[in-house]
Write a structure and sequence with these properties.
Number of strands: 2
Strand order of the largest sheet: 1-2
Structural class: mainly alpha
Radius of gyration: 31 Å
Helix content: over 70%
Amino acid sequence: MSKTPTPINNAARTARNRANAAHSTGPKTEAGKKRSSLNAYRHGLTGQTIILPAEDLVAYQDFTRTFFDRYKPVDIIEKQLVQSLADTSWRLNRVAALEHNLMGLGFDEHSNSISTEHPEAHAALVTIEAMREETPSLAVLGLHTARLARYFEKTLKLLKETQSERRATEAAQLAEAAALYQMDKKQGLPYNPAEDGFVFSTAEIETYIRRRDRLKAAAAYA
């Protein structure tokens, strides 16, 4: 049966914890503080908090933005797929960096264990020795790379299919809206797309009609 801690024991434990904490005050130099600094970024879609080193956080946000600029998602499903693409690609890049760092560490550890006067031969032998020692770790990273690459391809395929279906639906609805717009126009009536359940503006419908008619004229001219 456990004993209830006495106030003296609690006070002693608190004092001991404070003493231990006093020995670890974090980095002293500005460079050390910069290396250890972390920023929190709240994910715009899931609300999850992502913690990254300060430099990586900015790079991550810029990297993610390039995917959103490239694929221009319009709803929550497309946005989630684009975010998954960005995150998976970021992780693939990180795995590649880990492979390079692992080899660099192995090269540094074995550079003094091999003796040869030929620089290129020395580099080749040290690299082979590093690879031989780090083979298990490299194999694990390779499995991660293959898994992430498959997920990326699957997600990209799904995104393209989703956007293709959405665009086909929009095109069909825009053609319907244009037909109703032209019917009301011939009758001298104003047309309100929202009354028929469309989200297009009148300007968008007019642009569609103008482009469609010009393409028909271009086809006839050709």
